[in-house]
Amino acid sequence: KNAPPPLNTTLAVVATDADLTRAQAQKLAGTAHDGIARAVRPVHLLNDGDTVFALATGGVPLDAGNPLALNEILAAGADLVTRAIVRAVRAAGPVDGPGGAWPSYEELYGRG
Fold it and tell me: DSSP labels for 51-99?
């Protein structure tokens, strides 16, 4: 019962070539954070530091005639974070560290 808590923080970076304002990039980070909730259980606990950072290069302007042009980027951010987490979990090997010994997904469930 005195075991240390598991080490389970998830960090993600979402980057786009869209020309986003600071507020739009913050919205992208928040929406992409939903991708963590789709892929990680449990999520948003008091002892984890789940965080998403958003970057925008500004190379491609948003369609000024479409007030909802940002929605496609927001949806893609959440979808891609979910997919990236699933791919990372499936590719990871086992871990033996300060939090304990943790088998890989493949060891638990096979390649399926």
Answer: EEEEEEEEEE---TT-TTHHHHHHHHHHHHHHHHHHHHHHH---EEETT
Q: Is the pTM of this model over 0.90?
A: no
CA 51 – CA 101 distance, rounded (Å): 24
Distance CA 61, CA 58 (A): 7
What single-letter DSSP state applies at residue 42? S
What region does 71 belong to: left with phi over 0, alpha with psi -120 to 50, or beta? alpha
Angle between helices 69-91 and 22-39 (to 10 degrees): 40
pLDDT digits (tens, 9 = 90+) for 41-91: 888 888 888 999 999 999 999 998 998 999 999 999 999 999 999 999 999
Three-state secondary structure call for residue 31:
helix
Cα–Cα distance between 104 and 109 in angstroms, integer? 9
